[in-house]
Amino acid sequence: MEKPAQVEYPVHELIGRRWSPVAFSGRPLTGSDIASLFEAARWAPSSFNEQPWRFIVAARDDPEEFARMLSCLSPGNQAWVRHAPLVILTFAKLAFDRNGKPNRHALHDVGLAAENLVLQAMSMGLFAHQMAGFDSAKVVETYGVPGGFEPVTAIAVGYPGDADSLPEDLRRRQHSKRARVSLGSLVFTKVWGEPPDFLGA
């Protein structure tokens, strides 16, 4: 299912097509496919090139590990993520390796790596849905996450599935319209709240 963005200005096709479905096919990903996703993430920019992102992955074709990761998600997310072939947890290293000082950009940089992964997925005919709904403390306990690392998001990745197989509430979510606030509400010049002339405001 496609839900192209109703853009105000031209953007790359992958950006316009990217959205977060809840209907996934159980069709498995190859090891090479999965590696390509993380290779894209690896080449994201980061402050001082610290690369503060880390990932834990579970594939549906390893039922025990997949169930363990699903158990860390909120019940609402478990209901649809269980159909996806791949689930990823993202983590941020909170201090710089170079000097041990706090890295206030770490979460931002993890977000950049995650978006690289998401756009790589789109280029491969896959979709990704990023989530905040998981139990951070359980993730840390389940996976033995060392101190200095913080769970950030979970990401389901897979091929699009049949929305008609979803419960009614998830079907509504799958078919809901995509929306964004206007650029004039986001981009300012001279003073906070004043849109620049190039937006035609």
How would you describe what is shown here?
This protein has 201 residues and is an alpha+beta fold. The protein has one domain: NADH Oxidase. The protein is built from seven helices and four strands. It has a four-stranded antiparallel sheet with strand order 1-2-4-3, with helices on both faces. The model has no long low-confidence stretch (mean pLDDT 93).
* Helix and strand sequence: HHEHHEHEHEH
Strands, total number: 4
Please report the first level of CATH classification, the CATH class.
Answer: Alpha Beta
> Gyration radius, to the nearest Å?
18 Å
Q: What is the fold named in CATH at topology level?
A: NADH Oxidase
Rounded average pLDDT: 93
CATH superfamily, by name, is NADH Oxidase
Q: Main beta sheet: strand number and arrangement?
A: 4 strands, antiparallel
Low-confidence stretches: none
Specify the oligomeric state.
single chain
Count, helices: 7
Structural class: alpha+beta
Helical amount: 25-40%
Instruction: Quote the distance from N terminus to C terminus.
Output: 34 Å
Backbone shape: globular
Give the second-level CATH assignment, the architecture.
3-Layer(aba) Sandwich
Query: Could you say how many structural domains there are in total?
Result: 1
Beta content:
5-15%
Briefly say what this structure is.
By secondary structure, the protein is α+β, with helices and mostly antiparallel strands. Helices cover 33% and strands 15% of the residues.
